[in-house]
Amino acid sequence: MHASQVVGICIIGGYWLVLIVTRWMFIARPNRRFTLARIDDAQFHLEPGDAPPSLLDEARAIATGDYMLGEPEWLRHRRGHEEPESGTTRIKRLFERLSAPLIWNGSRDLVAWDLVHRVEAEAASTLSGPALVARLMKAQSQLDDLPERKRVYWSLVLNDLLRGCPQGKLRDEEVAQAILHSLLTELYDARDTKFTNLATQQNKVTWMVFTGLAIMAALVSQGYQDLLMAGAVGGILSRLQRELERREVPSDYGLSWSVLFLSPVSGALSAWAGVLLMQSLQKLNVIDLSTLLPADADLTNPSGAILGIAILFGFSERLLDRIVRQATEEIGTKAQKAKAVEVQPEPPTTAGVTAPIT
Fold it and tell me: pTM of the full predicted structure?
């Protein structure tokens, strides 16, 4: 194995390590801290200081990982006495902290948010008077989170409920409380489903990055490191340009970070596949780029022109799809012409036919 191949594999391993650290520092930890802050806020406003353990305590234990390690610390505090941790629990806690960056998938935060939303919906359903009216009006302004049909339905329900309530007094507070509880349940379910889908997509992209890096390592061992590096440069340039033009978007649960991780990997593989495909199409006489890409060019030792093509494939994500589509149409057209020539009827013979005498 050449020194360049060893360097290429080391770069791939280092990229995966940087990805894991970045994912933990800029996705997992901010999400966990924000979840814990929301739990603290809900616990401060919704529970007295001497309240027994509740769903918010369970949400905190899940978000911090104590739920997986046996009896959490908050429960020992609530009981009024401290119990020494066993050696097994300490080992589990240490293993949990060391492995957290590798195994994080966002599931604990999602479960904690579901519990917090349940508590908030229950607390809102106990409001009365002007506070109940204000919460209904706030929920009315958040209907955009619902699908269209549910949004229209709940908009009509709230309009009928809030119409003509004098001085913030509802006609039937118990009915209004029940409606508010059902509406908040719908809203929170829609939000939880949205962030669950984002977390799932983010985990899928991370898995694709890992798979792409494994394929790149195999290609580096075959000598394609220069081609892959050129494609990765093109992918990074493309993503940098998009980031400069990017507008502000709501929280996407780390999906934008995962797409950023995927760009150089996708660019590298697109470059290798694109150059190899163009070389194959040239041998089949589908395209003619002999001046840039000779038919007998060695892709393990590419020239400057080939590296430029690789950068172009890495920069443009749709270029490979477009070439594949055009090649498919060209090959299909040639096959149809060849078939038409084969089935073309032969001209009739004139044997035994006497020309008329003029």
Answer: 0.77
